[in-house]
Amino acid sequence: MQEVSAQPGVVPELKPKSYKSSSELKKRLWRNKLLYVMLLPGVLYFVIFKYLPMYGLIISFQDYKPYQGITGSEWVGIEHFQRLFTEPDFLNILGNTLILFGMNILFYFPIPIILALMLNELRGTFFKRTFQTLIYLPHFMSWVIVVSISFVMTTMDGGIINELLSYFGFEKINFLLSPGWFRPMYIIQIIWREAGWGTIIYLASIAAIDPGLYEAARMDGAGRLRQIWHITLPAIRGVIVTLLILKIGSVLDLGFEHVYLLLNSMNREVAEIIDTYVYTAGLRQGHFSYSTAIGFFKSIIGLIMVMSVNKLSKKMGEEGVY
Amino acid sequence: MVEDRTIGGRLFAAVNFTLLAIITLITVLPFIHVVAGSFTTSAELAANKFVLFPKVWSFEAYTFIFSTNTIIKSMGVSIGVTLVGTLFSMLITALMAYGLSRRDLDGRNVFNFLVVFTMLFHGGMIPTFLVVKELGLIDSYAALILPSAISAFNMIILKNFFQNIPEGLEESAKIDGCNDFGILFRIVLPLSLPAIATISLFYAVTYWNTYMSAILYLDDSAKWPIQVLLRQIVVLASGMDYSASLDATNPPPDQTIKMAVIVVATLPILMIYPFLQKHFAKGAMLGSMKG
Predict the structure, then answer these.
(1) I want to staple A154 with a disulfide (CB 3.0 to 4.6 A). Which of A175, A198, A301, B7 is the partner?
(2) Distance (Å, rounded) from C-alpha B102 to C-alpha B105?
(3) pLDDT by residue for chain B (291 residues), tens digit each?
């Protein structure tokens, strides 16, 4: 925008902003030299630990040998990517990943929304604050702690859940080693750790709703549930859609730690996902190139998903993530 | 909002309150059970599994875990990595965020894009591992800090916060002869204490919870932070993979000992949580806004 002088009669100096002579640019760069010095550590970090690994992705087109390095290893084209789609192991793992993701959307995603609606309807700041404080807490515990707590509670010898089961005359269940219990355990742990924390963003957007809307609804005789349905939910629709997009974008990216901690030789059939497989195949068994190809595949799918779902949501009239 | 005094309104409020109370209880009960169990004698826990409050307070589990060197050592590693890592991350995050917050910086859009792009696409585990290895960081504590030194998310939150500080303040400092470092450390940072506190706490929690980097980059078990040790003691010892978890001479850890290790690994979070709590909602909000 042009700056216009406030004084009448003085003609503002008209200098198009796009005009940059190279000497002027050099002068500006030099004047801001300290700012560039400040950026340096951060830029180095991103180059070394984020962009160098992206360059390292080319080993997925090679038969990478650690002692020969990227420059010395042999090129094999897309052999590793072809292997992905013929390997029964990989297809099973892809299936496991998609199932866990589906359970995430189905069983976890709605819970923070419902919790936020409930918290919002709560009268009395004291209880509201207390409940919030306590349900946020698990978010700050590491997956190791969350998994460890469930281990001591569900273990066969002396875990409280199994003791309760046998107290009420049921059979004890080997939650930790039975493949059938892996998925329920996984999703329950996610809900326990994240549901409370997930309410924050919904509560904030609920707080921004014009109270006049509720007043008008009450005048029209709307009860609490109708107010939630006709005012609160539509008002936070944008946030819900945005978060859903982010979630869908990370379809193959369930996170390494949580599943890795629950994984054992008994439940591998249902528990191995892409992230843990990259680790096992790559670092445990030394198939660097194949494993990198899997990771590459995963990252590209993620990128495509985020961009296309974002576009779709813009078409539907929502805001989108970027 | 006005209190709804109709019968339906009261019923709604009562049901809502009760459900929320139950949900909150379910959230905290597992942890109370573990804390209580860790202070119970192993005999009482074995006889009476439903402990939520020990009859006799016992420190035998804690005495045991602190009599072995293993736990003390890995606590030391975790504390050290958390302190050094948080300071280092905060410093380089703030420097970068401040640079990028200045509108007169040529090329800031390019830098911004390069940062945001890393949130959408990354090289993945193996290429990152190879970079860390090439740098000779395997088995060094630096491997727990450097590869995740800046969180792009935290940096953007901080940058947005800095951008909201009136430019006039910076300009007047400049006229008084302050250089960019002076402006950052004497004007901008003191004005950003809530944001700094939030992000430091985020970093501190992340470093305390470090698990994956340790698994990937530390082969030497003497350097394990507490989270890795916790998994060895609780998860592996209770599965069939049970092997040498503590010293080979010690018996397999029983429930009270496992619970005590969980408490010890959670303790710092529980101690800083009240401070954290004050700031984080605001921080999370800032983060959810667009950069």
Answers:
(1) A175
(2) 6
(3) 556 678 888 888 999 999 999 999 999 999 999 999 899 887 777 777 666 778 788 888 898 888 888 899 999 999 999 999 999 999 999 999 999 999 889 999 999 999 999 988 889 999 999 999 999 999 999 999 999 999 999 999 999 999 988 888 888 888 888 898 999 998 899 988 888 988 998 899 999 999 999 999 999 988 999 999 999 888 877 543 334 444 444 455 688 889 999 999 999 888 888 877 776 666 555 555 433
B12, B120, B126: best mutation site toward chain A, by most A Cβ within 10 Å? B126
Chains A–B, number of C-beta pairs less than 8 Å apart: 284
Are A206 and A115 spatial neighbours (Cβ–Cβ below 8 Å)?
A: no
Please tell me the distance in Å from A94's CA to the nearest CA on chain B: 17
Task: Kindly report, residue by residue over A199-232, the tens digit of the pLDDT.
Answer: 998 998 998 899 999 999 989 888 888 899 999 9
- Cβ count within 10 A of residue A320: 17
pTM of the predicted structure, to 2 decimals = 0.88
Residue A8, min C-alpha distance to chain B (Å): 25
**Paired residues of A62 in beta bridges:** A75
Domain ranges of chain B: 9-57, 68-240+250-289
Chain B residues within 8 A of A123 when measuring between CB atoms: 1, 3, 13
Question: What is the spatial distance between Cα B97 and Cα B118, in angstroms, rounded to a whole number?
Answer: 16
Neighbours of A166 (CB within 10 A): 13
Return the DSSP state at B165: S
DSSP B5-60: -SHHHHHHHHHHHHHHHHHHHHHHHHHHHHHHHHTS-HHHHHH----SS-SS---H
The span from the CA of B81 to the CA of B229, in Å, is 15
B210 close to B227: Cβ distance less than 8 angstroms: yes
Classified as helix, coil or strand, B150 is: coil
- Of A42, A52, A223, nearest to B96 by CB-CB distance is A42
Does A322 touch chain B if contact means CB atoms closer than 8 Å? yes
| Contact (Cβ atoms closer than 8 angstroms) between residue B186 and residue B169 | no
Which superfamily does CATH assign the domain made up of B68-240+250-289 to? Answer: MetI-like (1.10.3720.10)
Q: Among residues B261, B255, B271, which one has the least CA distance to residue B40? A: B255
